[in-house]
Design a protein that fits this description.
Elements: H1 2-20, E1 25-32, H2 35-56, E2 60-78, E3 83-100, E4 108-127, E5 131-149, E6 154-172, E7 175-184, E8 189-196
Antiparallel strand pairs: 1-2, 1-8, 2-3, 3-4, 4-5, 5-6, 6-7, 7-8
Keywords: Signal
InterPro entries: Beta-barrel_OMP, OMP/PagP_B-barrel
Pfam family, one: OMP_b-brl
Length: 197
């Protein structure tokens, strides 16, 4: 009789543990530094200002950039214990103000809105009930909308986007916090919270 009770308790514990691990869905929100995009914008701004200065004689100085970073929302689906697939949708707003060095020229403010969608794959290296050490990679597209006030330039562009994060760490059970380090359009560091259900 004792063996039956012990086996029943062990079977019940195993069933509960298996039921708790059946959370296949995960939603997440996060923030990243968008270093790749900001550096690219800085080089593009310097290049375009050099061309404008050469053609018109108006030199721009004291460029001020207001960018608070990239916000993202995402979804993951557990295929198995180590592999997840999903997608991320990210948004970044950047505002650059260029002051003219001559008195009769106007200052220019350039507003840029980026929207990026990535299909993502995530692989867990080490996974416990509280910790998940993983890597991820994503491919997709990015759309940029540029408008100037005080100038006449506007543009809409679409291009290829990617993100590779070889090091990611999630802490928590259902509700958790994560941090990822990598390279790509999101930048070097991404952090946020996620929820499994």
């Amino acid at each position: 009789m004792k063996k039956v009770i012990v086996l029943s308790v062990l079977l019940l514990c195993a069933t509960i543990a298996k039921a708790q691990d059946t959370e296949k869905n995960e939603i997440r929100v996060g923030y990243s530094d968008a270093t790749f995009i900001q550096l690219g914008d800085g080089f593009a701004d310097a290049f375009s200002n050099a061309i404008v200065s050469g053609l018109s004689g108006v030199k721009y100085k004291d460029a001020k950039n207001k960018t608070i970073g990239m916000f993202e929302a995402g979804y993951r689906y557990n295929i198995n214990e180590r592999l997840k697939i999903g997608g991320d949708l990210s948004y970044l707003k950047s505002e650059d103000t260029f002051k003219a060095s001559t008195a009769n020229a106007k200052s220019v403010t350039r507003n840029t809105n980026y929207l990026m969608g990535l299909a993502t794959v995530e692989f867990s290296y080490i996974r416990t009930s509280l910790l998940n050490f993983y890597g991820s990679g994503g491919l997709g597209i990015i759309s940029g909308s540029i408008k100037e006030t005080g100038g006449s330039y506007s543009s809409n562009e679409v291009g290829f986007a990617y993100q590779i994060n070889p090091a990611g760490l999630r802490v928590g059970k259902k509700l958790g916090a994560f941090v990822e380090l990598g390279y790509g359009y999101k930048g070097i560091a991404t952090a946020g919270i996620n929820y499994r259900f």
